[in-house]
Amino acid sequence: MDWQLFGLSFITVFLAEIGDKSQLAAIALGGSSQSPRAVFLGSITALILASFLGVIAGGTVAHFLPTKVLKAIAAIGFAVMALRLLWPDLGED
User: Fold this and answer.
1) What is the pLDDT of residue 25?
2) Is the pLDDT of residue 93 over 80?
């Protein structure tokens, strides 16, 4: 196993999830639920499944596109999301 890639993936996803909408939803569900353990198990199962689907999709797309193109697409996607967050009216006509 590539431990450096494992650590990089863990830190990236962990930091990205702090304060994310999914974490806020888990906080709200855990706070309003009688069974926070079920909320925890449901949340980690959903995160694992979403990550699994992302890795499978990324691996599949990587067979068809070079790494540089994938990185460029990801960078453009994040830039577009950042612009839409900064200027919400930008995407609306």
Assistant:
1) 87
2) no
